[in-house]
Amino acid sequence: MKTIQPRKQRKRLFQAPLHIRYKQFSALLSPELKASHNTRSVPVRAGDTVKIMRGDRKGFEGKVARVDRQKYRIFVEGITREKVDGSAIQIPIHPSKVMIIHLNLDDKWRKKALKRKTEGKSVEKPIEEKPVEEKPEAPKKRRKRKTETRKAKVKTSTKTKPAGKSGGT
Predict the structure, then answer these.
(1) C-alpha separations of 103 from 29, 52, 89, 126 in Å
(2) Cβ contacts of 50 within 8 Å, gap of 6 or more
(3) In this predicted model, what pLDDT tens digit does every residue of 128-159 receive, in sequence order?
């Protein structure tokens, strides 16, 4: 079921099972990959090379080291921050803020999935134009105005106020 209520959308986003979260991890493909694979986006996986498109680290490129489906974040090699004690930690990035530059196609399943996605879009059937039969328009029915009937009802239902006792002497 689809909903337009923001609270229910957030609930479904954060309570989604992992197999649905996988599809929500999609990121745009670079123009070269978009042309070769005939698709706009693909779910991000560890091993893909991505370019960061938003935020403080905009323009940086690196391999995806880890994908955290629980928190909706990916970790890119080389994108780190130094903690107060001097140790370096990787910065989590949302997958919608990156663009995939190079796909990791080591997995047979992913190759098949890309092929299915490509075939589904590349098979374009020419649209056959069928002659449209023109039906004669039926004459429009005139509706009675409601205002005329209301005025008649108002005139019959108005009553004069009964003469009451006056509060005077």
Answers:
(1) 9, 15, 25, 32
(2) 27, 44, 61, 62, 63, 64, 74, 76, 98, 99, 100, 101
(3) 666 666 666 766 666 666 665 565 565 665 55
